[in-house]
Amino acid sequence: MTSGKPVLYVIACGGRPASQLPDFVEQVQAGGWTVCVVTTPSGVKFVDGARLSGVTDYPVRSDYKRPQEPDVLPPADAIAVVPATFNTINKWAQGNSDTLALGLLNEALGLGLPILAVPWPNVALARHPAFVDSVTLLRRWGVKIILDPERLPAPSSGEPGAATFPWDEVYKELQAMHRALS
Questions:
Q1: Which end of the chain is more exposed for a tag (fewer CB within 10 A), N or C?
Q2: Does residue 164 have a pLDDT over 80?
Q3: 7-63+74-181, which class in CATH?
């Protein structure tokens, strides 16, 4: 914990809802979290890294550091993957750690940290058998998953597809995690 507040890593993947993270991070901070943001390599394209760094007072990380460099982020007490892409969910369930985000997620599973994931593929990808199996496996491993297929965007829906992202549900779940850690 930093300054008596639990540390939440928000891991953002390459999905349109990631562009809404600055406002959400401010809301989560007001709810008592210290927040650090990590993105997948594709997630970098969707977030405003400079704004998020200003809001959190930590750099937005997207790649592994060099071994001789100090850690710039405090250790996580919990992790939220918002949004989680089809690719990240499937690679994570297979134990792949080829990105910093996946490495952190795999370590968090091994450490038993509370993890919330909000997969946000389009409706067609959500029906793919590998994705369905990956979500089932992650749930079995204790990952809290918010996934409502009725809210998922259609393929190629663009910005309107991000409008139904369940930010309120994510916030409520993070507050429950916060209470459990306090």
A1: C
A2: yes
A3: alpha beta
